[in-house]
């Protein structure tokens, strides 16, 4: 390089630093000579650290652009795809995609088709839980929806969690205890009436044996079919006679500490009409 050329190059260097874009570190002589679009992008914006392709003014056009086809992925897969990008732009509207939920909230709000909305939010593996599915019991619901990552309520479009298999939102809105039981347990449940505590265990078993689930009329909790009384209601009851009544029906006796004065024959006689005998203590 001659001295003259060297001076020429230095003048060019000053041009670079004082270009109207600030310190862009681009030689516009070379840039203007470049005809390849990719190469021009590289000169201006560098390369992507993930795929090593030229960046554009909005970052990497491969790694930073959320494609419509990405909506087929579930949330985890979307996150994995874009884990190296600090921000992601929507292919359709070039707005920034919500980085935590991974869908374009702008396009989502504009979309009117509920199925397409679900697709954007949940990927392709979602199922719509029909109101008629409440006729199924839990096992049948599990079988029907086992292949879906997400289950959405037909009524309110909220997500139904796989631990419950009923819409918690609709359930809370519902005030009718029969309808609530139906949502939770399907068709084959029965409400255990408080007056059924007058039945003994055997009679309760006979009355309710054909039901999958038995719910307490008072607190709506599910009853254990071995005991046939409501454990939560039993636990909050403080009266021992009422507790015994719940557990054993009307035919139980309370064995008094003073009964220890009786001999076996006398005790037998005193309590022979009771199915169950509870200790007073
Ligand atoms: Zn140059
Ligand atoms: Zn890239
Ligand atoms: Zn968009
Ligand atoms: Zn719902
Ligand atoms: Zn109860």
Characterise the protein shown here:
There is one protein chain. By secondary structure, the chain is an alpha/beta fold. Among the domains are: 3-103, no CATH class; 126-185, no CATH class; 251-281, no CATH class. It contains 13 helices and eleven strands. The protein is rod-shaped, with a radius of gyration of 36 Å. The mean pLDDT is 86.
Main traits of this protein?
single chain; 281 residues; 11 strands; alpha/beta; two-stranded antiparallel ribbon; binds zinc ion; three-stranded mixed sheet; 37% helix; 13 helices
Question: In brief, what are we looking at here?
Answer:
The chain has helices at 3-17, 28-33, 37-45, 75-81, 105-110, 114-122, 138-144, 168-173, 177-185, 201-208, 231-236, 240-248, 264-271; strands spanning 55-56, 59-60, 65-66, 89-90, 126-129, 150-153, 159-160, 189-192, 213-216, 252-255, 276-279. With 281 residues, the chain is α/β, with parallel strands linked by helices.
């Amino acid at each position: 390089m001659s001295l003259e050329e060297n001076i020429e190059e230095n003048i060019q260097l000053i041009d670079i630093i004082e270009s109207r874009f600030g310190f862009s570190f681009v030689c516009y002589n070379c840039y203007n000579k470049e005809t390849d679009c990719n190469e021009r992008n590289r000169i201006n914006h560098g390369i992507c650290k993930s795929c090593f392709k030229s960046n554009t003014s909005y970052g990497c056009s491969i790694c930073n652009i959320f494609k419509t086809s990405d909506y087929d992925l579930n949330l985890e897969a979307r996150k994995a795809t874009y884990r190296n990008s600090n921000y992601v732009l929507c292919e359709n509207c070039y707005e920034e995609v919500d980085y935590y939920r991974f869908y374009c909230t702008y396009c989502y709000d504009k979309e009117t088709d509920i199925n397409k909305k679900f697709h954007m939010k949940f990927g392709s593996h979602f199922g719509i839980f029909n109101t008629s599915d409440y006729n199924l019991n839990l096992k049948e619901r599990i079988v029907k929806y086992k292949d879906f990552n997400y289950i959405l309520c037909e009524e309110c479009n909220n997500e139904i969690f796989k631990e419950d298999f009923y819409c918690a939102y609709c359930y809370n809105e519902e005030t009718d205890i029969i309808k609530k039981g139906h949502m939770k347990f399907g068709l084959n449940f029965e409400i255990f009436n408080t007056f059924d505590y007058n039945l003994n265990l055997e009679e309760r078993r006979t009355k309710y044996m054909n039901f999958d689930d038995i719910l307490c009329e008072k607190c709506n909790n599910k009853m254990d079919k071995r005991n046939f009384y409501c454990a939560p209601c039993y636990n909050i009851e403080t009266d021992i006679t009422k507790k015994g009544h719940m557990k054993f029906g009307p035919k139980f006796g309370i064995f008094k500490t003073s009964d220890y004065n009786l001999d076996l024959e006398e005790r037998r006689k005193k309590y022979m009409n009771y199915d169950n005998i509870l200790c007073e203590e």
